[in-house]
């Protein structure tokens, strides 16, 4: 089955700095890579995702890059703010097709605790 | 949209007792998932349902765990008998479909402590 490794496990930055979290996956067939943010006492919430036919995707201060050859993908947060402090999870799955009936089971990384110091 | 609703938020029980966790998915979502989160193992998928039917329960750790979805708006995860190693945060999530455009929506979880 799929295995997702995530690094670093903890990351501390100063407000305004950039933060980068990296993940590698094992199953070359995986084609969908979401990132989730989990705040204290809450469930994970999707913040951005990328499909295997795209190399990079950006949404305001966050961006995700994907290298299918190397089987790794990364989350980039620029101009970090204290409210970005949370646990971030990467995940990988195989979504067979947009109209498929077989669900792509998400495999999550172990998470990164991001702390942004004011 | 009220989101995925889980109850209780916290549950403390003694070893050997039965525990029932409850979940109300987002209306119209055909997929429902139960995840367990621990420091050691991270987020693990226990089971998921499609249109109230269990599809994949390969993540259910033991026969002590069972899950049901009697209708589209309610699901339970039961542990009987509970053991200290079951202590974790249990999340329910729902999704409208299997495609790229159907991300998981998680509830806020039930923190279970078995003493």
Structural features, described:
Chain A has 118 residues and is mostly beta strands. Chain A is built from no helices and eleven strands. In chain A, the strands form two sheets. In chain A, strands 2, 4, 5, 9, 10 and 11 form a six-stranded mixed beta sheet that branches. Chain A has a five-stranded antiparallel beta sheet with strand order 1-3-8-7-6, with no helix packed on it. Chain A starts with a strand and ends with a strand. By secondary structure, chain B is mainly beta. Chain B contains no helices and eleven strands. In chain B, the strands form two sheets. In chain B, strands 2, 4, 5, 6, 9, 10 and 11 form a seven-stranded mixed beta sheet that branches. A four-stranded antiparallel beta sheet of chain B has the order 1-3-8-7, with no helix packed on it. Chain B is globular. Classes of the chains: A mainly beta (118), B mainly beta (115). The A-B interface holds A 32, 34, 41-46, 49, 51, 89, 95-106, 108-111 and B 4, 31, 42-43, 45, 48, 50, 55-56, 91, 93, 95, 98-101, 103-104, 106-109.
Instruction: Give the chain pair forming the largest contact, with residue counts.
Output: A-B, 27 and 22 residues
Helix count, DSSP H or I runs of 4 or more residues of chain A: 0
* Percent helix range of chain A: under 10%
Q: Helical element count of chain B?
A: 0
Reported for the largest beta sheet of chain A, the result is:
6 strands, mixed
Find the count of extended strands of chain B (DSSP E, 2+ residues).
11
Q: Kindly estimate the percentage of residues of chain B that lie in beta strands according to DSSP.
A: over 45%
Gyration radius from CA atoms of chain B, angstroms? 13 Å
Gyration radius of chain A, in Å = 14 Å
How much helix, percentage-wise, in residues of chain B? under 10%
Low-confidence spans of chain A: pLDDT under 50, at least 5 residues? none
- Rounded average pLDDT of chain A: 91
Beta content of chain A comes to over 45%
Overall structural class of chain B, as computed from helix and strand content, comes to mainly beta
